[in-house]
Amino acid sequence: MDMSPNKLANRIIIAGLLALWAGITAVKFGYLTYRLEEIVPHQAHEIVITTQGQGYGSDVSIEHMLPVSGLGQQVSNEQVTGSFTRYEIPPLNGNRHVEFTFAGRYGPLHTRYAFRVKTKEVEYDLPPYWTRPATVAPRLRKYLVGTDLIQKGDPLIAEVAAQIGLEGETDAVEIVRKAYDYSYREIRPAGFSGETDAVLTCKLGEASCNGKSRLMVALCRRAGVPARLVGGLILSGGTKRTTHQWVEVYIDNVWVAFCPLNGYFARKPASYLACYRGDRAYFRHTTDINFDYSFSVARKLVPRHDDFGGHKALDIVNVWNAFENAGIPLHALSVVLVIPIGALVTIIFRNVIGVQTFGTFLPALIAYAFLRTGILWGGGIFITIIVLGAALDWVLSRLRLLHTPRLTLLMVFSIVALLTLGMLGIVIGNDHVAHSFFFPLAILSITVERFFVIAQERGTRHSLSILMFTMIVAAFCYMVMSSVFLQVMVVVLPETYLLIIACVLYLGHWTGLRVSEFIRFHGLVFDKKPRVAEAAKR
Amino acid sequence: MNETILGINRRNVDFVARLNPREHFDLVDNKFTTKRLLSDHGFPTPPLLASARTFFQIPDLLAELNELNTFVIKPARGSRGGGIVVVTGHRGTEWVLADNRRWSQSRCYDHIADILYGVYSLDNSTDIAIAEHRVVAHPALRTFAHGGMPDIRVIVHRGVSICAMMRSPTARSQGKANLHAGGFAVAIDLASGRTGRGWYRRKHIAFHPDTGEPLAGIQIPGWKRIVELCNALRSVFPLDYIGVDLVVDAEAGPQVLELNARPGLEIQNVCDIGLRGLLEEPR
DSSP strand E in B128-240: where? Predict the structure, then answer.
């Protein structure tokens, strides 16, 4: 078939878009010397430390440690809120902490300390050997003493030190390797929390992070190498109550990190956030206030404020910073900006594969909702509400209601179902279920409505199969849309949209057989009889 | 590979979008308009008996229909045969349906209200309920008329009929002559108007799935007239790629029921031929 004028125009526009994209990309990466690794935003973490208590009229004080910027970690955007009377951040032994004071308060007390942190892995180059100095500088002497929990003088510790060959060893690198190997390999990791001292760790032969770390510190100090505990957090998504402890050893004038629980030797992974040095608790508070606390960690994409000096003409980072200043975080922006990519996935599924879905863009919008609720919980809750709605619809059909009132009742049902699930989530303390209320009601309502209309017109089985395909396509959209790489592409290189538009225009005139039609017409498609000639004779 | 199969993408881009201007879709999407145009231009179509556009017209419509013995109620903008009710008589105040169900007056009221609400309409917008004369199948087609009315689908391209089939109800389809509802179809030879092989549940068949009667070689009454009617529709409806649905009435002969601006593709399986080979042939 010859090409029609509109098809030709379509091809020309596509070629123009591709040329424009290539041109912008060439200018950015050639003339303006953009480099992809400079543009890509940081993966940062937003951390919230909350504490709670109960006031009975006397003064209450709550203290907790705060992270500081340093090697491999950069802290910013600190915010303090809560019901306290005042707070103070005094310097203390090089560590930082915050003191909240509640003066003569009754009822619930709470504090919230939020900050953003960018971390990266730190790898330390250990020298091949380093003879520990005979005398230690006065400021380091406290890192050699024994304590109640780090019993470097205990006979059991002496026995272990002798057994692993620390006695008489003067190479600090060798000492630290032996102390690490023993604490990491010979002591079994244990899940229990609570304080374990160095001696108890040896006796039990198993310990969690603090026991293993104290043992390693005790062995190092015994052998004359300065060592200290580090307290902090492991940055994994979600809400938790566990802190982590690891070890730093002073070798060749550098504090080098070791983790005898998770097996990091002379290495601090990007997921470790150091908050304080020394053997102390993360929280201190007035007793008998029913104290509780939690850490919540969320991943965020943040622009690289600092790395951008040049590129003034096309400084996209300034644009995103402007959005940030207007209260629209880059993360929220990037999640919206990938919706067209999800829509492109939907087009491919519908027009190339031939899968039926509810609504044209519903799969992409459902995937957008899943970006907030998570796909497993979000998907489960979504299907649950629709299946429960179908059961309700069966009951309503017995009442022979008119169409619109019936749909209205189903809408009311889905709102009540979301509320109930949200409440249930709060009661059982499952944040994923609680966050189901974030499921955009419009998207849920539209899907429920489509489901019932199709169930009514073409049967529940047909509607269920479309629901299944809608979920499959939404899952693919989710996979694409949750890709940090693609989020970064559209956010930092908005000309990526030109490529998306070109693809959509191409698919808009794509007239090939759908995969589903190969199945539908399989008897004809693979038939070699010359039917056209036969038909023309008629 | 057979290149002549027409897929949905190509049908939409190369045929529907190019040959059927969108502003004329309503002429065929709305049976009320279609019927008026057909009868205004002398095309045979089952006469319109009554209609209702608003809820306060429903009691009047019911009163009019209670006077009639037999009729069909349809949504004007229905799709896939949804909402069509064939009434064959009355028992007291109840209506007796073609499948022997009985509907009370309030059940009838609800059904018409559903139609007006747009339950069966293409885009679920509000609709018109129409009542038309009930067609009786021509005796020559009794093989295809078990439990319902068979209808003929002709694909017309630029005023030329290019492919035809007849759709027939089965016990499985509960009176509907729709393939996806469980009906079957037979190919029709365009030149002679004789039936060929059947197509039922994705397989070719030679015999009626319920009665076992042979399907092929039956002459459709008034076939020449049917092709003439289909080819002449172009003068009234400015659409160049349409599916025409007709029935053959025992007394009145061929009747045009409705037109479809996005005709389905299953006819290719029924007639065992790819539509592209027929459409792109210069004629």
Answer: 129-132, 151-157, 160-168, 184-188, 195-200, 203-205
What pLDDT score was predicted for residue B188?
Answer: 97
- CB within 8 A of B209, min separation 6: which ones? B170, B172, B184, B200, B201
Which amino acid does the sequence have at A39? I
Q: Is A99 left (phi over 0), alpha (psi -120 to 50) or beta?
A: beta
| Helices then strands, each counted (H, E), chain B | 9, 13
User: Looking at the complex, does the CB of residue B240 fall below 8 Å from at least one CB of chain A?
Assistant: no
Please give chain B's pLDDT, 283 residues, in tens.
788 899 999 999 889 988 999 999 989 999 999 999 999 999 999 999 999 999 999 999 999 999 999 999 999 998 777 889 999 999 989 999 988 889 999 999 999 998 998 888 877 778 999 999 999 999 999 999 988 899 999 999 999 999 999 999 998 888 788 888 889 999 999 999 999 999 999 999 999 999 999 999 999 999 999 999 999 999 999 999 999 999 999 999 999 999 999 999 999 999 999 998 887 644 3
Q: Is the CB of B7 less than 8 angstroms away from the CB of A525?
A: no
pLDDT at position A316:
58
Tell me the nearest-neighbour CA distance from B143 into chain A, angstroms. 26
- Distance linking the first and last C-alpha atoms of chain B: 25
A353 CA to centre of own chain: 32
CA distances for B220 relative to A27, A44, A357, B21, B139, angstroms = 70, 75, 40, 32, 10
- This prediction has a pTM of 0.69
* CB neighbourhood size of B72 (10 A): 19
Q: Scan residues 146-175 of B and list those with Cβ closer than 8 Å to A.
A: none
Burial A29-61 (b: 16+ CB within 10 A, else e): eeeeebeeeebbbbbbbbbbbbbbbebeeeebe
B126 closest CA partner among B134, B135, B137, B115: B115
Based on the number of CB atoms within 10 Å of its own CB, is A516 exposed (0-12), middle (13-18) or buried (19 or more)? middle
CB of A465 within 8 Å of a chain B CB? The answer is no
Bridging pattern class, strands A206-207 and A188-189: parallel
- Least Cα separation, residue A358 to chain B (angstroms): 14
Residue A42, both tokens: 């940081």
Q: Does A538 touch chain B (CB under 8 A)?
A: yes
User: CA B70 → CA B91, B105, B130, distances in Å?
Assistant: 12, 15, 14
Helices (H) and strands (E) in chain A, counts: 20, 18
Residue A457 in contact with partner chain B when CB distance is under 8 A: yes
Residue type for A379, please?
Answer: G
Distances (CA, A) of A61 to A81, A85, A275: 15, 10, 20
Query: How far, in Å, CA of A225 to CA of B60, rounded?
Result: 102
- A505 contacts on B by Cβ (under 8 Å): none
Q: How far apart are CA A399 and CA A3, in angstroms?
A: 56
User: Are B269 and A526 an interchain contact pair (Cβ–Cβ within 8 Å)?
Assistant: no
- Chain B CB contacts of A526 under 8 Å are 1-2
| CB neighbourhood size of A241 (10 A) | 9
Predicted pLDDT of residue A193:
65
Which residues does A292 contact at the CB level (< 8 Å), separation at least 6?
A51, A52, A53
State residue A82 phi and psi, 5-degree precision: 150, -175
Residues of chain A with pLDDT under 70: 1-3, 36-41, 92-93, 192-193, 302-320, 403, 429, 431, 528-538
Helix A209-222, helix A172-181: angle, nearest 10: 150
Q: Pick from A179, A60, A57, A46: which is nearest to A107 by CA?
A: A57
Is the Cβ–Cβ distance between A183 and A150 less than 8 Å? no
